[in-house]
């Protein structure tokens, strides 16, 4: 097995907006397995820029949940303590003329989209670039948008083997880097942080896969090295709907405080992936009812081998 040449740095990046549910825990588990299976460092990064949605108790609850599951970390960061880092990155883009202020409201954007050809079917609405052409009145509090390059950006996921190409102007549009209330946008913060924290491997939920080309493009504009991306499936409920903090999904905290055994939860999380080739589908092998996180390391290595991770197809 050839290990990646650069030491691996991974991260788990929860938003402290509520209690972690089992889906969050599964993503945390896989991110941890990945970093540890490769002998790497694992970071815990609280994505807490949207202060209106933050629940102050969620930081400690998340830490306790992770500890209970045996998912340790080497360093912890709070995005809310790193505003100067995002300001620096944004200033670089501003000086290069790559951003512009925008005061369009959601309603104005919708109306402009409808007046033009309309949003392409099945795609997210694309900002029509109103303020690119008619600079915003700076007296009103303005958001800052990134003037996306006229390019098609392709990204390959080293776990799923899928490639996603997006034409930035047509499919993404100029997106917000800082909101009109001064809050730095998720896309800016995540790109800056992954680069500045030396993250080499981004293991995260599949809901963020469509956001990856724009993040890669932004990273390139800032001159950053591109991490590897591994998107893992989202956990769904019996209706096939993804678990959500607001949807009443069972919280890890409730299981922990209710006296559940962490080993059983870990075993159930691993089984729920239904990745036969991970091992327990093969003859003579069964996943015990109780496991420690470290017991799952060989299974993750097997999954990476199956994905061709070690055979050099990844960057
Ligand atoms: N903070 C995001 C979330 O909780 C994850 C962001 C990321 O992994 O890039 O969904």
Automatic annotation (TrEMBL):
Belongs to the class-I aminoacyl-tRNA synthetase family. GluQ subfamily. Its cofactor is Zn(2+). Binds 1 zinc ion per subunit. SUPFAM superfamilies: Nucleotidylyl transferase. One of its GO terms (biological process) is tRNA modification. One of its GO terms (cellular component) is cytosol. Catalyzes the tRNA-independent activation of glutamate in presence of ATP and the subsequent transfer of glutamate onto a tRNA(Asp). Glutamate is transferred on the 2-amino-5-(4,5-dihydroxy-2-cyclopenten-1-yl) moiety of the queuosine in the wobble position of the QUC anticodon. Its EC number is 6.1.1.-. Keywords: Aminoacyl-tRNA synthetase, ATP-binding, Ligase, Metal-binding, Nucleotide-binding, Protein biosynthesis, Zinc. A motif ('KMSKS' region) lies at residues 242-246. It holds the Pfam family tRNA-synt_1c. One of its GO terms (molecular function) is glutamate-tRNA ligase activity. A motif ('HIGH' region) lies at residues 14-24. L-glutamate binds at residues 11-15, 47, 186, 204. Zn(2+) binds at residues 102, 104, 127, 131. InterPro entries: aa-tRNA-synth_I_CS (IPR001412), Glu-Q_tRNA(Asp)_Synthase (IPR022380), Glu/Gln-tRNA-synth (IPR000924), Glu/Gln-tRNA-synth_Ib_cat-dom (IPR020058), GluQ/Sye (IPR049940), Rossmann-like_a/b/a_fold (IPR014729). ATP binds at residue 245. The keyword Zinc applies. This is Glutamyl-Q tRNA(Asp) synthetase. NCBIfam families: PRK05710.1-3 (NF004314), PRK05710.1-4 (NF004315), queuosine_YadB (TIGR03838). Residues 8-260 form the Glutamyl/glutaminyl-tRNA synthetase class Ib catalytic domain.
